[in-house]
Design a protein that fits this description.
six-stranded mixed β-sheet
């Protein structure tokens, strides 16, 4: 492991993948110019489109997807590791994946991750989302060994499921990620505290690029892309919702140091759950 510069790119993706690819090119070039060896983009880099029929009309498989092609070219051009937070990909079985990609400096894909947890919610302001109606959830979390650190992959709503990041930390990830398209309402309430909590409880760096602003399809996302240290300190944050690039220097050895100070990963013990109800005792499945 070695110190490296990480960048999180904040975008305002529209419905046209070609236009989004042009924005991607501009922002990645800016990040590389700031010395970033690892660059991350938000969830749904390729298209934010709530109309399912319209989304399907622009969907491609990996071989023909403009974001995949553009990201491969950019990673090779700048000699960086480029993490596409996610983009919609047509699966061979006719379903859609909300898929993350990591490209190496040679432009080749070295890792993929399909978002596991689907954002099926009804918010107080009338917003209603049913990701499971369009996307097929993934089955496995993914941890990648990059030259400078072991990194765990996740996407947006995954951040509310701490057991996923705990599993990554137990697998040795010093850096965890949750690139996102958080709604403005949920972002204002929970975004930063969730990012810092996942970093603290796992003694890991947390890097989360975000979508921000009012998008062509009418949704509004929170922005505030963020990089958090393993002690919960905010190393960099976009304090707005406009397109931006933030950078921070990451020393993976600080993750080991944080875990040494508070070894909660080592100290965890299995336990059961007992429910007492009107004199009846029920033992539920064990947890840890």
């Amino acid at each position: 492991m070695s110190v490296f510069r990480a960048a999180a790119i904040q975008m305002r993706s529209g419905v046209d993948p070609e236009r989004n690819a042009a924005d991607l090119t501009r922002l990645v070039t800016e990040a590389a110019g700031k010395g970033a060896a690892y660059v991350q983009t938000p969830e749904m880099t390729g298209s934010l489109q709530r109309d399912r029929a319209a989304l399907r009309a622009v969907l491609k498989d990996e071989r023909d997807d403009v974001i995949v092609r553009t990201a491969s070219e950019l990673a090779a051009r700048h000699g960086i590791h480029l993490h596409i937070g996610s983009t919609a990909i047509a699966r061979d079985d006719g379903k859609i994946a909300n898929r993350a990609f990591v490209f190496g400096p040679d432009g080749k894909v070295i890792g993929r991750y399909d978002k596991i947890h689907m954002f099926d919610v009804d918010l107080d302001n009338g917003e209603s989302w049913r990701e499971s109606a369009a996307y097929e959830p993934g089955l496995d979390t993914v941890v990648l060994d990059l030259p400078f650190a072991r990194i765990g992959l996740a996407v947006c709503y995954d951040v509310r499921f701490p057991q996923l990041f705990r599993a990554q930390a137990l697998a040795g990830a010093a850096v965890i990620t949750a690139p996102a398209a958080f709604t403005r309402q949920t972002g204002e309430a929970h975004w930063q505290v969730l990012q810092r909590a996942r970093a603290i409880e796992n003694g890991a760096f947390m890097i989360s690029a975000a979508q921000g602003g009012v998008h062509e399809d009418g949704r509004e996302t929170y922005g505030h892309s963020i990089i958090v240290g393993p002690w919960g300190d905010v190393l960099a944050e976009a304090d707005h919702a406009d397109p931006a690039v933030i950078v921070a220097d990451i020393d993976p050895s600080l993750s080991l140091a944080a875990r040494g100070k508070v070894p909660n990963l080592k100290n965890a013990r299995p336990f059961g759950v007992i429910v007492e109800n009107k004199g009846e005792t029920e033992r539920l499945a064990a947890a840890s």
